[in-house]
Here is the input.
Amino acid sequence: MTTSFYPPQRTLMGPGPSDVNPRVSQAMARPTIGHLDPMFVAMMDEMKELLQQAFQTGNQLTIPVSAPGSAGMETCFVNLVEPGDTVIVCQNGVFGGRMKENVERCGGTAVMVQDEWGRAVDANKLEDALQAHPEAKVVAFVQAETSTGASSDVKTLVELAHRYDCLTIVDAVTSLGGTELRVDAWGVDAIYSGTQKCLSCVPGLSPVSFNDRAIAAIKGRKSPVQSWFLDLNLVMGYWGQGAKRAYHHTAPVNTLYALHESLVILHNEGLENSWARHRLHHNALKAGLEAMGLTFVVPEAERLPQLNAVTIPDGVDDAAVRGALLNDYNLEIGAGLGPMAGKVWRIGLMGYAARKDNVLKCLAALDEVLGRINAPVNNGVAVSAALAAYK
Here is the structure.
């Protein structure tokens, strides 16, 4: 007989999804109403304001796309890139490569600016590319590279792109709510994120924001947007202001309840307080990991607090350790991607998961599992080092 699915209670400290705040889970269970119901439309308007606060923007075109972060990425590219356009893509990890894929599927030419995985995007290399390609229309880069834990300087890179009359597309999937991000102050033209990271929401939605410069480019296109579903000219008819909405698609009503609740939680905590909380728990985790003798991939000045890429000690089986953490402790940490596969663990401290009890559980569990296999680490010191950091 087929029965209902009941997942185990895990502690999610990988690269995402992160632990969902219980208030968000409860919000999803509220009664479903129509996606054109006046009460739902009022909630949509409030959600837009909360998203604007999270992004630190006044952009009217700030909405959640009804699909995961990858669809937010595609929304930016299909609306802003036309066949024949040159786009400079800065790659310092997996997700810059996905940007390249988007450019090429839009019929554009991607000029790649390559940086070492685990390092921030180099502004000097970007300027060299801008000088070599005066025809470039867009510069795209990742603020918080989830595959490595590296953070790039959005303000500097955007200023540089604008100096050469390029629009900017920024990936903020892992940064929104967890680390400093100021869309208007930094002049970002188009940006996308995800709900399953530092917002402590369920996966399945992608907040995006476009400024007036980007909207003018969309309206001035010579060719139709290649995706009907992601065409912002159509979507805005549904996400526009006021009670009168044009039907575009059936919005994921209960998932939007969840996002609304997560944004209320963020608003009540305070955005800068959230950034500080992620930094606090990162510092404690860092103290514990370093006391064990583990090292970080990313230099401290370029390191994300919410995504920690840690080098696996020599001779240690990556999958065996992660399997033991999952099976014995119900604790999930992430594997490396691409050239980092088998070489690093990615430990997330995102949103609701960025808590003292999670930091201590992760350190204690990792200490026990590594001790069990006689890994070359310092045992029995990680938790006390983290507690000292909290003091």
In short: The chain has two domains: 22-268, 271-390. The CA atoms of residues 63 and 207 lie 6 Å apart.
